[in-house]
Amino acid sequence: MSIGKAVIRPLKDALDDMPVHVRQLSEMFRKHGQKQHRNTSDVQNLDSADVVHPLQQAWRSDTDWTPDSVVSWKGEAPDPSDYLDSDYISQHLARFDDGASRIYFSDSLHRYGPGQADGSTFVFPTSELQDILDRTGGRADDVADALGIDRKYFYGPDGNPVDVEIRHFDPSELENLRMPSGNEAGANENWIPGGYLPTGVPEAVMDVPGSATGIGNLDRGGTDYNPGLWPGTAQSLTLHR
Question: What is the pLDDT of residue 152?
Answer without folding.
Answer: 96
